[in-house]
TrEMBL record:
GO terms for biological process: proteolysis. It holds the Pfam family PmbA_TldD_3rd. One of its GO terms (cellular component) is cytosol. It comes from Novosphingobium umbonatum. This is TldD/PmbA family protein. GO terms for molecular function: metallopeptidase activity. Residues 120-223 form the Metalloprotease TldD/E central domain. It comes from the Bacteria. Belongs to the peptidase U62 family. Coiled coil: none annotated. Signal peptide: none annotated.
């Protein structure tokens, strides 16, 4: 795997070859990752895995025609062949009036800020095994745990570099450290499983492996022998583990490409009061050690903190250059890149600001409701906003979380759900999308 500086050099070299071959404009992206993981089950080593990959992608423009191509061969000969093939492909492509690089005057300039994404202390395979064993031992020590699906620890690194033919070149690198455990509680038909995991840029930011294991064990035991729910309308409270998915649906509908295609349930809602006026949703790409922090976007534009929802209203769409041209807007610095193809859009570190009530007060007036800890399936219509997902969790009765429940469906419409959303004050910061506990009244439960 190349260093960030070496990756920039390779991307720049590929751009030079593309221009020499006849491209009017081009950009090149290098993405590489390396990971090592160790897993154990029932106290025995189960798997040790090491993987490395690197890919360089080229996008060329000839007039309004464009083509993308990629390769894992970074030699000079391979880059020359890649550029020639991309030009041949572009000659056969249809014209796209919105295709092109990001506006030159908007490109990121200056040194790349240090977001502290790289942990120089790489754990050894022996250390990873010890972390996994500690997590599983702690999980199996919880009374009521009867089996283990295993525990694991992993270490990874990624390098990203981007170069464009109109003056941008930049790169950065980051690391990840993680630990997880998954166990089973109960016997026979009453068995239930649950898990816990944590990921961080730096190993020092992880909680102890024993904490992760104990959390997995306690969660599994709490789910044993679930009851069924009766069908009907009731308040639903989303645990922070699953509440972030609601923001994910919002982000998908805010994509400029979806708006341009008129395939979003947010069409015509830019000035509408979608949420309560207290709701604030922030995107923070420069958060130190953030899991999705980045100094520039996938087109070489600067990134910056932005309120995506403020006072309960959208502040605008998330657009890369192509959809910005189509919509007559300015790119927002949310372009994301894979190894090939045109950029899409993606947020960075997202959070829903904490509310003013405790979790106890949030559920205290619920006579009959449900606390959801797991969502199953993908029954969300991005065009209409209709929402229907399988779920499990715990019954809320008389303002208290009581016994486990399972095999029910939560249904509604996202626009109605956003309007009814009430956050608690328990926001934590260890995911890429961070939310507190969320209450949504009036959802339909399909159970018995």
């Amino acid at each position: 795997m190349l260093t960030s500086a070496q990756a920039q050099e390779r991307a720049e070299a590929l751009i030079a070859r593309a221009r020499k071959a006849g491209a009017d404009a081009a950009d090149a992206v290098y993405i590489a990752d390396a990971s090592e993981s160790v897993s154990v089950r029932l106290g025995k080593l189960e798997d040790v895995e090491r993987s490395e990959s690197e890919h360089i992608g080229l996008r060329v423009f000839v007039g309004r025609r464009s083509a993308s191509i990629g390769s894992s061969d970074l030699s000079d000969a391979a880059l020359s062949e890649l550029a020639a093939r991309a030009l041949d492909m572009a000659g056969q492509a249809p014209e796209d009036p919105y295709a092109g690089l990001a506006p030159e005057e908007m490109l990121f300039k200056g040194p790349v800020p240090d977001l502290d994404l790289f942990d120089a202390e790489e754990p050894s395979p022996q250390a990873l095994r010890a972390m996994a064993e500690e997590a599983e031992d702690a999980a199996r020590a919880v009374a009521g745990v009867t089996n283990s699906e295993g525990a694991g620890a992993a270490s990874g690194a990624v390098v990203m570099a981007l170069a464009t033919s109109h003056g941008f070149s930049g790169g950065y690198q980051g690391t990840s450290r993680s630990v997880s455990a998954s166990v089973v509680a109960g016997e026979g038909g009453l068995m239930q499983r649950d898990y816990a995991y944590r990921t961080a840029r730096h190993g020092a930011d992880l909680p102890s492996s024993a904490f992760i294991g104990q959390q997995a064990g306690e969660r599994a035991v709490a789910r044993v022998n679930p009851a069924k729910l009766k069908s009907g309308s009731m308040p639903v409270v989303f645990d922070p583990r699953v509440g972030g998915s609601l923001l994910g649906h919002l982000l998908g509908a805010m994509s400029g490409a979806g708006i341009a295609r008129k395939a979003s349930f947010l069409l015509g809602k830019l000035d509408a009061q979608l949420f309560d006026s207290s709701i604030l949703i922030m995107d923070e790409p420069h958060r130190l050690r953030g899991l999705r922090s980045r100094p520039f976007d996938g087109e070489g534009l600067p990134t910056a903190s932005r309120a995506l929802v403020q006072d309960g209203k959208l502040t605008g769409w998330l657009v890369e250059s192509a959809s910005a041209r189509q919509l007559g807007l300015t790119p927002t610095g949310h372009a994301s890149r894979g190894g090939s193809g045109a950029p899409g859009v993606a947020p960075s570190n997202l959070h829903l600001a904490a509310g003013s009530v405790s979790v106890a007060d949030l559920i205290g007036d619920i006579a009959d409701g449900v606390y959801v800890t797991e969502l199953i399936g993908h029954g969300v219509n991005g065009v209409t906003g209709d929402y229907s997902r399988g779920a499990s969790g715990f019954r809320i009765q008389g303002g208290e979380i009581t016994g486990p429940v399972a095999e029910f469906t939560v249904a509604g419409n996202l626009l109605d759900m956003f309007k009814a959303m009430v956050p608690a004050d328990d926001l934590e910061w260890h995911r890429s999308i961070n939310v507190p506990t969320i209450r949504v009244d009036g959802l339909m439960i399909a159970g018995d």
